[in-house]
Amino acid sequence: MGKEKRERALKDTEAKAVLRMVRTSPQKLNLVAAQIRGKKVEKALAELEFSRKRISLSVKKTLESAIANAENNHGLDTDSLVVSEAFVGKAMVMKRFHARARGRGARIEKPFSHLTIVVREVEEAV
């Protein structure tokens, strides 16, 4: 009696993982996402492992989740996966106030963001 099954948004050779409400600004997260965009997953994982950015650990875990989704849910070969998309979106912003001189207050914004990683299986060029 339940609702009808929705069509799959991705192709059959793609899998994705989403990291929501991560406590960093979208601009900082996009710097790390741009490093792995379009690369093979082994190279992307190695680059995230040795990155000095704080958020790279969370991005690495999300990429590993996308790889696991590709292997377990869609039966794709992990050796031929490429990061086809890695994009960042804005989430909520916590507003805080910081006391300043003469009874004034300065607004502090603490942004959150979302990260989506899509991996695609590609055929090896022989």
How would you characterize the overall build of this protein?
The protein has helices spanning 26-36, 41-49, 56-72; strands at 14-22, 81-99, 105-121. The chain is of the alpha+beta class and 126 residues long. The protein has one domain (17-121): Ribosomal Protein L22, Chain A, CATH 3.90.470.10. It has a 3-stranded antiparallel sheet, covered by helices on one side. The model has no long low-confidence stretch (mean pLDDT 95).
Tags for this model:
single chain, 126 residues, alpha+beta, Ribosomal Protein L22, Chain A, three-stranded antiparallel β-sheet, 3 helices, 3 strands, 29% helix, 36% strand
Q: Uncertain spans, ≥5 residues at pLDDT below 50?
A: none
CATH superfamily: Ribosomal protein L22/L17
Radius of gyration: 19 Å
Q: Any idea how many domains?
A: 1
- Mean pLDDT across residues: 95
Strand content: 35-45%
- Please state the second-level CATH architecture: Alpha-Beta Complex
Strand order of the largest sheet: 1-3-2
Strand/helix succession? EHHHEE
Spatial shape: flat
How many helices? 3
Fill in the CATH topology. Ribosomal Protein L22, Chain A
InterPro entries: Ribosomal_uL22 (IPR001063), Ribosomal_uL22_bac/chlpt-type (IPR005727), Ribosomal_uL22_bac/org-type (IPR047867), Ribosomal_uL22_CS (IPR018260), Ribosomal_uL22_sf (IPR036394)
Protein name: Large ribosomal subunit protein uL22
Keywords: Ribonucleoprotein, Ribosomal protein, RNA-binding, rRNA-binding
Pfam families: Ribosomal_L22 (PF00237)
